[in-house]
Amino acid sequence: MSADHREQQPAQQGSRIDPHVGRYAHRAQGMVASEVRALFAVASRPEVVSLAGGMPNVSALPLDQFGDLVKDVVSQEGAAALQYGSAQGDPVLREQICDYMTLEGITAVPDDVIVTVGSQQALDLITRVFVDPGDIVLTEAPTYVTAINTFAAFQADTRHVSMDEHGVDPDELDRALTEAERQGQRVKFFYTVPNFQNPAGITMTAERRTRVMEVCQRHDVLVVEDNPYGLLRYDGEPEPTLYSQGNGNVIYLGSLSKTLSPGLRIGWALAPAPVRAKLVLAAESAMLSHSTFNQLVVRRYLSTFPWREQIKTFNAMYSERRDTMLTALSAMMPKGCTWTEPEGGFFVWATLPEGVDAKAMLPRAVTERVAYVPGTGFYADGRGRSSMRLSFCYPTPEQIREGVRRLVGAIEGELDLHATFGTTLPPSTQGSQTPAPDLP
Amino acid sequence: MSADHREQQPAQQGSRIDPHVGRYAHRAQGMVASEVRALFAVASRPEVVSLAGGMPNVSALPLDQFGDLVKDVVSQEGAAALQYGSAQGDPVLREQICDYMTLEGITAVPDDVIVTVGSQQALDLITRVFVDPGDIVLTEAPTYVTAINTFAAFQADTRHVSMDEHGVDPDELDRALTEAERQGQRVKFFYTVPNFQNPAGITMTAERRTRVMEVCQRHDVLVVEDNPYGLLRYDGEPEPTLYSQGNGNVIYLGSLSKTLSPGLRIGWALAPAPVRAKLVLAAESAMLSHSTFNQLVVRRYLSTFPWREQIKTFNAMYSERRDTMLTALSAMMPKGCTWTEPEGGFFVWATLPEGVDAKAMLPRAVTERVAYVPGTGFYADGRGRSSMRLSFCYPTPEQIREGVRRLVGAIEGELDLHATFGTTLPPSTQGSQTPAPDLP
């Protein structure tokens, strides 16, 4: 779907009830509420097992110790912590972030880091700095849902490049770039989540990384590498970051939302100096500065807490949940269903037999007291109708087993319907369906 | 200066050193670093009395009690506080914000409130939702410097309307709106800081408020009412908000940055329901959600702390500082200088005799160990060269007296130069000069 097409919808929908409708900027017309939000409100009832949300399990943190830590920040550094800060972020925290990134094999200096309100804000600032209406942004297919929304909010023309189990297809990426050049269109960047991708759970292999970087450098296109899950690896060996082989052509996004807490909103971008300077100016006009309080809390956490051990604790917990989900899927899923087997992160991507619509099935699933995110939300072009994202991060192993059991009940019901009446796919619809990130 | 003109500068400046310069969005070219930043870095040395920054004096908070409060949030509500939240903000906090706004005479429901990263983010989201490139935004002259930057970052054509001691001139506002209509141009909103304005320290009178609302409603133009200082009143009676007489045509911005702490970044917008819905979608793509941690800290503060008494404590302190500055200016300023006498807030606006350039004088002032913000930063069109903003919020009364003494020394030196060589005004320059908000 083109950005232009997307713009047409909400103005028509809203014109009868909103007296301000003629006043909005063109970009506001790309800001569309989720079609499935209402259903998710039902899905958040306690009796429903949610395999939908991407919430980390922060209860695994030692909250009493963390409480003492935040108290010390206020009583010992309160005058600084409660004051304005700089738009680039606290210098000591940026140094600690560089240390943190060495675990990913990244060598960086604090001056190239900007602290952001989660890595989501970094993505927003990058889009703001680079994307004019109609500019092309390339992403994996499927891709992170709120990235699609952010690109749409700046009127980008989001185009997808297919993935297989080794990651994005470099030949298709090459063709997409060549095609855009041939049409005289500008590709502003290729956005990728190379590790345990949200939503597909796929990790780009080392060989693919080399080829992707070769293609992007040959076409002189920036890469935005979003890596929130990199340290949450349960099997296998880490792959090298794209940043480390990017020759200044990669903007790297990191986050503590999954390895510490999303409620503190500490993410960052690591960018070439002139880009970083633009991002800082954009951040200043976006919010003056991030919370100094949160930055000093995280600064103290990274300097006084055994945070590497804490990540191991998280990994042991998530690994068990991942195993539980994969085992349950293998044991129970009907013939014809497939799913990915992530080496880390939070998500499994499951695909139903041809012709079964995961979005149309969602009301039945919620009736069975299980929720997931339909695959269409992760595409800008209406694909993904037979797929769904299943999260194993938040529910307990017992809930995961029960959730898969209920999900299988819903799928079998849908397959029966399908066998009786043919396809359950409704007429084509367009637009992304945003799942709220805070779904339990 | 038109938005187009502003765009031309940085591309020319940066093209020799930035390999990414051809890739930026057009709007990024309106993101320009401050010309006076380097000087402010010098000005932040401890021997310099800074009358430049707008930092509240958070040390007046009882930090030990506040430390206990944040510890309780983590140990008692940590699982929620450290988790993702909704893009609109915590519902209980939004209810408390409605209670808080009753002190300003506003009646509102929590559903019309969105919690933002300071009111700066609210202003950014509003601009994002309403402003297409070239759209006109009207502001007071002078106006809040980062508002100018935010409007420029979305390629607005920012135009000013004069103020006198009673606030903005409604007849000039009427003419500006009529002129835009005649030209077939769209005015997206009128941005105003009606109480103790930053930077001018002027409060709009009740009569002016009525006339301003009459003009804006007649021209069917939205008003954005930014009121961070409203409760910091040291003399006189509160004026009614524009929101309370706006008939759904006003977006109101509030903040706890000045009455509690800017480091927590809790601001908000109160907007008509359809606009609020757009702002929530914009906030979601900008950052997913604000910090739940900070929201639950503030929620507990507003429910357990004697915060009305705390505001009285702040007011007693700031009132003394305001009095000290006004007394020192009256006693020491050379003939021909004028200044405003704010009834609240943080700022006095001083104007030097015709022909003396406050920006050109700044290096001399810093040599005299005093800093201020030159007036040109508060205009989009190069005006304000004889003026400066003087802050009394952060320095102690003793420092304020000494700062004014040093400032007067610098002005007298400049007046001597002026008497000998004529005007000190350099050739016209353009672009805003952003003071960092965190200057001490």
Q: How many E-type strands of chain A?
A: 14
Give the DSSP E fraction of chain A (strand runs of 2 or more residues). 5-15%
Number of helices of chain A: 13
Characterize the biggest β-sheet of chain A.
8 strands, mixed
Uncertain runs of chain A are 1-15, 428-440
Choose one word for the global shape of chain A.
globular
Q: What proportion of the residues of chain A is helical, as a percent range? A: 40-55%
Secondary-structure element sequence of chain A? HHEHHEHEHEEHEHEEEHHHEEHEEEH
| Protein chains sharing the most extensive interface | A-B, 88 and 88 residues
Q: Work out the radius of gyration of chain A.
A: 22 Å
The assembly state of the depicted protein chains is homodimer
Question: Order of strands in the sheet with the most strands of chain A?
Answer: 2-9-8-7-6-3-4-5
> Which structural class matches the secondary elements of chain A?
alpha/beta
Mean pLDDT of chain A: 91
State the end-to-end distance of chain A: 31 Å
